Amino acid sequence: MAKQETDTTTLDLFADIRSPGRPKTNPLSRQVQLKFNKRNQLKRDKAKGLSRIELKVDQVMLHKLNLLAAELKLSRADLINALLLQQLGLQDSQ
Asked: Which domain of life does the UniProt lineage start with (predicted)?
C-alpha cells in the first residue's frame, strides 16, 4: 500500500518518521499544509459568496493604495472593494 502525504486517517504510517530539531505538531509537510489551508480558505470564501479576482497595478498605484488603506485603517482588499462599490454606485443602495 502506497503512503499518501494527505492521508490523515492513517497517522500510524508517520509514527516512525523522525527529524532532528523542533518536533512537528503536524505529520504533513509544510507544502501540503499550505495547500490544505488554501483549499479551506477558498471553501470559506465561497460559502460567504465571495469570488476571487486578480488585479495587476503598477508600483505607484500599489503605494497609493497601501497609504490610503493604512490611513483609513482598512486592509487593501477592503479598500479596493469599497472603491469599486463607490465607483459603481452600489454603496448607497446597500
From this structure: Bacteria
CA atoms within 13 A on the CB side of 5: 10
pLDDT at 89: 86
Look at residue 72 and tell me if it is in a domain: yes
Check if the beta carbon of residue 13 is closer than 8 Å to that of residue 7.
Answer: yes
Which residues constitute the domain of residue 61?
53-94
Q: Is residue 85 part of a domain?
A: yes
Residue 92 domain flag: yes
pLDDT per residue over 6-47, tens digit each? Answer: 666 665 665 666 666 766 678 888 899 999 999 999 999 999
